Every structure is written in structure tokens, then in C-alpha cells.
Amino acid sequence: MALRVLLLVAVLIFCVTEVSSDAKIDEHGNQIVKGTNRRLMQYLDCDGLCKGRCSMHSRPNVCTRACGTCCVRCKCVPPGTSGNREVCGTCYTDMTTHGNKTKCP
Prior knowledge:
4 helices
């Protein structure tokens, strides 16, 4: 029994160190992934991007909150202060509120 637990702990430690060694961060703060673990996406500064996107909005706090949700889910924020939503694809354009209005600014 103790041998099984020791073997399990050794395998878990090996897996954790192997996965954590695949991700590196370069000098610009972007994450570089090597090996078979490709699930990590490029880091996005959703707060900064959404602040710029919603800077001219009539309700900037509401806009920033909705934009942040869309940024986290879709991993994209369109350029400019309005329009260009199609740049982020269907995830961004098709997301709706409970009232069936478009969610992402």
C-alpha cells in the first residue's frame, strides 16, 4: 500500500513539473508554450483593452464590465471605440443578454 502511494506521488510530481516547464514568459510578458500542452492562450490585458474600447461610451462602467466578460470568454477585444465586432468572430458577435440584446460592446 505504501509503495502504491509513493509511486502515485512520484508520478504526480513528474507530471506537474513537466507541464509547468512547458510554459515560459518572454521579455514582453507573452506566454510561450512548447511541447504538447497547447491549451494556454496568449495573455490579454482585458482591463486595459476594455478601458480603451469603452472610453467614449455613454456608460463606461457598464460597457467595461460587459467588455471584460466578453474578453475573458472570447479572448478578443475589437479595435477602436465602436464597431469592428466581426474581427473577434462569432463568439463575440453572437453573445446575447437574457433580454436577447447583444452583450459585447
